[in-house]
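Input structure tokens:
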């Protein structure tokens, strides 16, 4: 068992998101961390002490995926608003929008050469995009349900995807064909990724399992069942010796893949852990969850450097390729259960480096924040008071129905649509409870000014809610209109074919009649 000095430790916490954190990724330059949230914003956190953070505003719905390109000069984000954006992680806050999906985009990932993007969507497709030409290239369409995640292999020759059809599919990027379909998933597959050598693939599931396959033998080699709720995300350590997992049971698990056992359980989040990610060097990892926080951890448990691991594996007697987690071959698929010897770590290390970073908002808000921030009658004292009030209201939203909708794959607007049917008495009661909660909440972390009066704030919140409902309604109408147009085109095409067949039949009959009696036949 690892010594106390090798236990993972909590380095910092980042507060700035106003709702659940859904995704995170480290910049390869080791200076920045990106995260996305249900609050529709992408945040770029600078890891240097006292550095500013950037909030990128532009998406119209929940951010579902975020990733830095290999060079670190671009950040890709995916959203339920059906778009993918490419951001420049700087003060400019510029972005390019990619549109081709017809439903929510669930994940986005760069190829290892940084030339392509792969996205997964609720429209049951996986799409590949060109970064240089900034356009859609091709689509992969054999999934029969929502696709949750898609990733390139390290060499770029394979794409792995998984989804609610309980399968993991492998695609050949040259032929665009599905070359393998893994059906060992017990439930909806939530996340998929390759190890750094590309010899193995892992997939997590809503049934709380993590399964690892060897791609050279197409066999399931490891199966972990260590969480008590669904696994939302996982990340391979660069050495391929460890995997971290984040689950809706509020815990982070660290698995030793060479020994095939659970070695750590980390408790740092209040609510579901939705995303986890190792840094490129493996010395740090980040986690984000329903409590709107991003936690930065120092690994520690991997005492040997990646180069030491490579040298150790180079002395093996077997002629296999470079190190991979299947160096130890089990006799067959086996289940790993939690062991009482696993170390339970509760973070007691507070953020000793700096206070919460100053946040600079970039881009244009789509829900009126720009208008609200420019309210003409604000005084400095009102601004400070309103900041506390608005952030108090924000704190009340943690782990709300929108998060549950994201985890279960449901639209976040359903709760809003239901709320629209409440009586006036219900709305007055909710308003009273909200005001009481605001009075009870202490000092939070002000980032933006929303309004200059509680009543104005309530009205504006209601307007935003109604706009969300209208947006969702329009989206549903667009989908129905598209289906209607498709059916109409099909009917017209079918009718046109019938008319052509009828005319051809009449012409044949006329020709035959003329050949028979020599007199023309006229049809009415």
């Amino acid at each position: 068992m690892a010594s106390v000095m090798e236990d993972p430790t909590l380095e910092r916490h980042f507060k700035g998101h106003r709702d659940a954190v859904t995704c995170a990724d480290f910049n390869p330059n080791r200076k920045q961390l990106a995260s996305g949230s249900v609050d529709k914003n992408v945040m770029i956190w600078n890891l240097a002490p006292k550095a500013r953070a950037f909030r990128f505003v532009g998406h119209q719905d929940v951010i579902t995926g975020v990733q830095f390109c290999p060079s670190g000069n671009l950040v890709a984000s995916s959203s339920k608003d059906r778009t993918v954006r490419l951001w420049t992680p700087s003060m400019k806050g510029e972005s390019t929008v990619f549109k081709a999906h017809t439903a929510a985009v669930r994940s986005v990932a760069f190829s290892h050469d940084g030339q392509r993007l792969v996205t997964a969507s609720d429209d049951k497709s996986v799409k590949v995009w060109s970064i240089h030409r900034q356009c859609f290239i091709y689509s992969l369409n054999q999934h029969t349900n929502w696709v949750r995640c898609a990733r390139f292999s390290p060499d770029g020759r394979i794409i792995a995807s998984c989804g609610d059809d309980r399968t993991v599919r492998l695609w050949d990027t040259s032929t665009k064909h599905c070359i393998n379909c893994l059906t060992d998933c017990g439930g909806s597959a939530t996340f998929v990724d390759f190890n750094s050598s590309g010899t193995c693939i892992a997939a997590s599931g809503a049934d709380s399992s993590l399964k690892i396959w060897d791609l050279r033998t197409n066999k399931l080699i490891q199966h972990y069942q260590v969480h008590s709720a669904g696994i939302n995300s996982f990340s391979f350590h660069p050495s391929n010796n460890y995997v971290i997992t984040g689950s809706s049971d509020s815990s982070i698990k660290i698995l030793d893949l060479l020994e095939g056992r659970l070695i750590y359980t980390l408790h740092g989040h209040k609510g579901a852990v939705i995303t986890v990610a190792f840094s490129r060097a493996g010395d740090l990892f980040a986690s984000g969850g329903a409590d709107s926080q991003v936690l930065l951890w120092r690994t520690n448990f991997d005492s040997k450097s990646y180069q030491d691991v490579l040298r150790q594996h180079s002395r093996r007697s077997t002629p296999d390729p470079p190190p991979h987690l299947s160096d130890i071959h089990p006799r067959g698929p086996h289940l790993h259960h939690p062991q009482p010897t696993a170390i339970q770590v509760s973070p007691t290390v507070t953020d000793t480096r700096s206070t919460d970073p100053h946040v600079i908002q970039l881009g244009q808000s789509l829900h009126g924040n720009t208008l609200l921030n420019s309210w003409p009658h604000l005084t400095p004292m009102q601004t400070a008071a309103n900041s506390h009030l608005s952030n108090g209201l924000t704190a009340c939203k943690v782990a709300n129905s929108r998060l549950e909708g994201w985890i279960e794959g449901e639209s976040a607007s359903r709760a809003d649509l239901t709320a629209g049917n409440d009586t006036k008495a219900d709305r007055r009661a909710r308003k009273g409870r909200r005001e009481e909660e605001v009075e009870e909440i202490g000092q939070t972390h002000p980032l933006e000014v929303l309004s200059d009066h509680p009543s104005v704030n309530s009205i504006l919140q209601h307007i935003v809610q109604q706009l969300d409902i209208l947006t969702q309604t329009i989206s549903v109408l667009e989908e129905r209109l598209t289906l209607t147009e498709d059916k109409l085109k099909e009917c017209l095409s079918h009718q046109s074919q019938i008319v052509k067949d009828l005319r051809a039949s009449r012409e044949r009959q006329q020709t035959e009649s003329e050949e028979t009696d020599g007199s023309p036949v006229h049809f009415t």
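The chain is about 25% helix and 30% strand. The CA atoms of residues 342 and 361 lie 42 Å apart.
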